[in-house]
Amino acid sequence: MNKTLRVLNVEDQERDVALLTRHLSRAGYDLISERVETREAMKAALESQEWDVILCDYSMPQFNALSALAVLKETELDIPFIIISGTVGEAVAVEAMRAGANDYLMKDNLVRLAPTIERELHEAENRRARKRAEESLKVSEAELRALFAAITDPIFVLDAEGRCLRIAPTAPTYLYRPSAELIGKTLHEAFPKEQADLFLGHISRALEMGRMQRVEYSLQIEGTEMWFDGSVSPISKDTVVWIARDITEHKRSEEMVRAADRRAVEEYERLLDRLASLALTFGTARDLLTIYRGLRDFSISLTPSFALVICLYDEAREARECVYLYQNGTELDAPAVEPVPLRSGPVGQAVKTGTVVVSNDYQEDLAGREHVRVGFDDDTELPRSALIAPMTIMGRTIGTIEVQSHGLAAYTREHATAMQMAANLGATAIENVRLLESERAQAEQLRQSQKLESVGQLAGGIAHDFNNLLTAINGYSELTLRRLQTADPLRQNIVEIKKAGDRAASLTRQLLAFSRKQVLQPKVLDLNSIVSDLEKMLCRLIGEDLELRTVLEPQLGSIKADPGQIEQVLMNLTVNARDAMPHGGKLIIETENVYLDKDYAGQHIAVNPGPYVMLAVSDTGTGMDEKTRARIFEPFFTTKEAGKGTGLGLSTVYGIVKQSGGNIWVYSEVGRGTSFKVYLPRVDEGAQEYKRSAEPEEAIQGAETILLAEDDDMVRKLASEVLSLYGYQVLEAANGGAALLICERHKEPIHLLVTDVIMPEMSGRELANRLSQLRPEMKVLYMSGYTDNAIVHQGVLDEETHFIQKPFAPDALARKVREVLGKN
Q1: Cα separation of 741 and 22, whole Å?
Q2: Could you tell me if 679 and 612 are in contact, meaning their C-beta atoms sit under 8 angstroms apart?
Q3: Helix, strand, or coil here: 414?
Q4: Which residue, 640, 663, 670, 636, is CA-closest to 650?
Q5: Taking the mean position of all CA atoms in its chain, how far away is CA 680?
Q6: pLDDT tens digits, 266-285
Q7: Nearest CA-CA partner of 355 in 384, 327, 388
Q8: Which residues contact 94 (CB under 8 A, 6 or more apart)?
Q9: What contacts 576, CB < 8 A, 6 or more positions away?
Q10: For labeling, which of 142, 390, 652, 764 is most exposed (least CB within 10 Å)?
């Protein structure tokens, strides 16, 4: 293939151009050429396109070679310029070459034309390559100078023996000596031996492996520990460059963050310990004074308070009665006055809104208001700050706890959260004591059953309060983990917080099960199918030392229950049996159709005569004595050693069975094993097919508008952030009234209402009913930490009602919202 050659001919004779063209064509060139004969034409041709070579006649009527060379120089283009003439002598040729021509040829000797062009093209390409290299070098040098000017970290060039050859850009100020004193010195002359040996080891490894080595080290400089991040890179076979970055402040910041995290976790653990201790006190309380004193001890230890006032609220009379007073280490007699009508002061606000009220200038808030002053005879003892927490149970406020301080602005959000949880525990305990006091005269079996009920109510109250807190803790932990890099030093702290939150969430789920506050989604089930489906898992659960046998009635009747809860019953009973047989044994699972008659019902509290399906889980283990059997279903009661169990397994089973309308009884003898028998009502409907399955992996993003109504700030903010993260537009409302106002003002469609079931002033169900008149097309998703008759009946979810249980994971919320809204 011929080579293309772009030739600009500066020539007044067309025949001479044709002559040159023939010579070049014979030499194998495809020509692109143009002829010019004036200065203006040449300038225009140079501007119009690129040329490989200029062939110029020395002398023309209007133009000459020297003038053409001047035009070329003006353009600063590097194009080979060859003069071709028939009459000019050697002196003129020399002059032209000095003026910048690349060569000079005679028209009667054009044999040299093609080789000359080849040579000049090659030379031109070499010149251009050198120019590019020079320009690149200039840029690199400029960039390097700028880089070194920007680097504040000392850079050392060291040989294999650790001798300092160069330091750039400046002397290491942390050594407090000029660079001239370090040049030529070895590492052992500049650093302590242990440190120098460490550095030499990294230099040797870098040279041996031929790649960069990283080392983090500390130095004691003028009594202060300083940290450095060093990178050692080989630059030849016996020299390295060492860059030392001062990371002291970063290390100190990391330590401060870790210390803050440790303090936060310690404070959280202390709060949990105190709440657990308080719950234990309440669980065993049999009189109100014990509860009041428990609240007092918790409040004084956790808040900067010198006084405490507990009032009970009479909803029928809209009045409060002061029942306990404490000031400066002394219990005071409650005032002998009639219940005080509830007014608009801080206590009234707490009762009416069901939320904590913090008054950080208490006397100012009371000024001009009618109020009751009790227990403070000296004006110097007047409180300057107060925190009033409503004692609420199942959305109903039964009283208030008020703590007081001499200081202004004494109470924080953390104090408010802790006091609200304690107040709600106190409310549940007070209700339990009232219940116990009214039932002490009943028979022993009834009393035992009701004791479990009351403790279950307490457990449900604890679980409810913790569920909002755990929703925020676990949700924000998960969101934070998504944003942290794997190597982030804070990631492990968040992982541990998430693990603690997950364990707490597991405990609350068990407490909800025991207290029968779970939301059930029952199906008509074949109990044999559930046993068969779980059999392989149960075998792995009990291990190889135990023998598992199943005895299933072929024509077993159907039951109506939540399949997940029935699986939980079966697994918990299996685990309990396994733990009772530490040295091996036999585990038998049986199903049977039974009929419990009136005689049986008369001997067992809360049993109605009728057809049942029995599930029996029996073991050949250690068995139980009478005292242990009497307490076996109590939460937190366990016969296992510390750290081996929570004491919630069987109480969870008890709650699930009771909430499913059934009964459970235990038969056991020491040394002869134990048998748990669960009786669930038989139904006439045919069983629905049920298979355990994993969560579907499907797209859960969306772009719809969601109205979020939640009175708990932490849960609301978390849910809003999660839904926004998945693409939804979120409208936030702290209560039902705010949600109504948003609906009235928002002109665009609102596709879904996500609402807490229990909120002050207006429940989630009432809010949904009122909004359905404004926006009938809007769907509803309820969320709650426990059951409420607003959306369930006897713990069973109303048909066609969408619900998500707190605490929920971010993905679970997004998946449930997507399910309710339907696929995009």
Answers
A1: 92
A2: yes
A3: helix
A4: 636
A5: 41
A6: 666 666 677 777 778 877 88
A7: 388
A8: none
A9: 649, 650, 676
A10: 142
225 pLDDT higher than 70: yes
Task: Tell me which residue of 773, 704, 768, 713 sits closest to 739, measured CA to CA.
Answer: 768
Q: What is the pLDDT, as a whole number, of residue 150?
A: 55
Strands of 328-479, DSSP E:
330-332, 340-341, 357-359, 385-393, 396-405
* Helix or strand run (H / E) with residue 383: none
What whole-number distance in Å separates Cα of residue 414 and Cα of residue 617?
Answer: 46
- Nearest-angstrom CA–CA distance, 726 and 105: 78
- H or E stretch covering 427: helix 413-439
- The pair of structure tokens assigned to 73 is 């120089």
What is the 3 state secondary structure string of 569-624?
A: HHHHHHHHHHHCCCCCEEEEEEEEEEEECHHHHHHCCCCCCEEEEEEEEEECCCCC
- On the question of pLDDT at 625 being above 50, the answer is yes
Q: How confident is the model at residue 596 (pLDDT cuts 50, 70, 90)?
A: confident
Q: Is the pTM of this model over 0.70?
A: no
Residue with tokens 């139980």: 624
Residue 705: its H or E element: strand 705-709
328 neighbors 307 (Cβ within 8 angstroms): yes
Spatial distance between the Cα atoms of 557 and 684, rounded to a whole number of angstroms: 8
Q: Is the per-residue pLDDT at 379 higher than 60?
A: no
The answer to whether the beta carbons of residues 335 and 309 sit under 8 Å apart is no
Span 50-81, pLDDT tens digits: 999 999 988 888 888 888 898 988 888 889 99
Residue 15 or 169, more confident: 15
Distance CA 505, CA 664 (A): 26
Q: Which of 624, 644, 647 is nearest to 635 (CA)?
A: 647
Q: Are 765 and 771 in contact (CB under 8 A)?
A: no
Structure tokens at 443: 């028979």
For the beta carbon of residue 49, count every other beta carbon within 10 angstroms. 10
> Hey, what are 506's tokens?
């597991």
Give whole-number Cα distances, 133 to 125, 139, 141, in Å.
Answer: 12, 10, 12
Residue 303 burial (10 A CB sphere; 0-12, 13-18, 19+): buried
Question: In the chain, helix, strand, coil percent, each to 5?
Answer: 45, 25, 30
Cα angle value 367/371/375 (rounded, 5°): 105
Q: How far is CA 675 from CA 364, 532, 574, in A?
A: 65, 20, 11
- For tokens 């399906």, name the residue: 613
Helix (H), strand (E), coil (C) string for 511-536:
HHHHHCCCCECCEEECHHHHHHHHHH
**What residue type is 437 in one-letter code?**
E
Ranges 143-152, 294-303, 572-581, 673-682: which has the least confidence = 143-152
pLDDT in tens, 452-489: 455 555 555 555 666 667 676 776 777 777 777 777 77
Backbone φ and ψ of 568, nearest 5°? -65, -40
Write out the two tokens for 338.
């009639």
Q: How many CB atoms lie within 10 A of CB 565?
A: 21
Six-digit token pair at 565? 């809860």
DSSP string, 60-124: -SS-BHHHHHHHHHHHT----EEEEESS--HHHHHHHHHHT-SEEEETT-GGGHHHHHHHHHHHH
Total number of residues shown for the chain = 824
Range with lowest mean pLDDT among 35-49, 95-109, 159-173, 382-396:
159-173
Q: Quick one: how far is CA 748 from the chain centroid?
A: 31
Q: Measured at the alpha carbon of residue 555, what is the angle toward residues 552 and 557, in degrees to the nearest 5?
A: 95
At 205, list the tokens.
């490894």
Q: Considering only CA atoms, which of 396, 392, 367 is closest in space to residue 382?
A: 367
Asked if 764 and 790 touch (Cβ cutoff 8 Å), the reply is yes
Coil, helix or strand for 408? Answer: coil
